[in-house]
Write a structure and sequence with these properties.
The chain is an alpha/beta fold. It has 2 domains: 6-108, 3-Layer(aba) Sandwich (Rossmann fold), CATH 3.40.50.170; 115-223, Rossmann fold. It has 6 helices and 10 strands, in the order βαβαβαβαβαββαβββ. It has helices spanning 20-31, 49-56, 72-86, 102-107, 128-135, 170-193; strands at residues 9-15, 36-43, 61-63, 90-93, 112-116, 139-146, 156-163, 197-199, 205-207, 214-216. Strands 3-2-1-4-5-6-7-10 form an 8-stranded mixed β-sheet, covered by helices on one side. Strands 8-9 form a two-stranded antiparallel sheet. It is globular, with a radius of gyration of 17 Å. 5-O-phosphono-beta-D-ribofuranosylamine binds at residues 15, 17-21, 50, 94-95, 115-117, 181.
Length: 223
């Protein structure tokens, strides 16, 4: 379904820290007048810088600190209740560093989308830039994907690719990748608002009229 200003796409954005991906999404919504209603920003850390930014923008932002809950299940249940009350179409994990349990994922099946800083299925988990450098890959990237109960796994919506330099550090590589993450996540949000993203029965994703869904870093580095 194509969304309109009268019938906007409702999204919840989950963060844990800086929130630059959330900022890119919120800024695109404002700058491009996308038919998107960011119905909540949730951080599992009360001191997340992104939370303060969101509040400053007048976005409905709440801290739901996982430390305040006795178990993973209890935290997931509280998060689920908060989200259910708002009925988002999609839940966007934008640097949300908390593993969500299978029940939660099942409850929102096909509606949770994550950005991961590697070209999945390579390098799931943490320290992806370090993993990429250790393997000597020449291209690194990010993946926007639907989540499944398996961590950093699931139907791929879009990917962005950047070159790796021989003298890269994890920080340098992360800094090169970040603008690409923003670009790919924002494009995904546009597609969602246009109602073009379809999860196929075979577990892959089709985006109507987007035969190619990979972005290549503009700069080529010679060794
Ligand atoms: C991003 O690299 C994201 O892919 C990863 O954590 C980082 C979060 O950055 N999962 P930010 O909070 O969006 O600035």
């Amino acid at each position: 379904m194509e969304h309109t200003p009268e019938r906007p796409l409702r999204v919840a954005i989950l963060i844990s820290g800086r929130g630059s991906n959330m900022q890119a999404l919120a800024q695109a919504v404002a700058a491009e007048a996308l038919p998107v209603d960011i119905c909540t920003v949730v951080s599992n850390r009360a001191d997340a810088a992104g939370l303060a930014w969101a509040r400053g923008q007048g976005l409905p932002a709440v801290a739901l600190a996982h430390r305040d809950y006795p178990s993973r299940e209890a935290f997931d249940a509280a998060l689920q209740a908060h989200l259910d009350a708002l009925a988002p179409d999609y839940i966007l994990l934008a640097g949300f560093m908390r593993v969500l349990g299978a029940d939660f994922v099942q409850h929102f099946a096909g509606r949770i989308i994550n950005i991961h800083p590697s070209l999945l299925p390579a390098f799931p988990g943490l320290h992806t830039h370090q993993q990429a450098l250790a393997q000597g890959v020449q291209w690194h990237g990010c993946t926007v994907h639907f989540i499944t109960p398996v961590l950093d796994h699931g139907p791929i919506i879009a990917q962005g690719v950047v070159p790796v330099r021989h003298d890269d550090t994890p920080d340098a590589l992360a800094a090169r990748l970040l603008p690409m993450e923003h670009q790919v996540f924002v494009q995904t949000l546009r597609w969602l608002a246009q109602g073009r993203v379809r999860l196929l029965a075979d577990g892959r994703v089709r985006v109507a009229d987007a035969p190619q869904r990979a972005w290549l870093g503009a700069t080529f580095f010679e060794s």
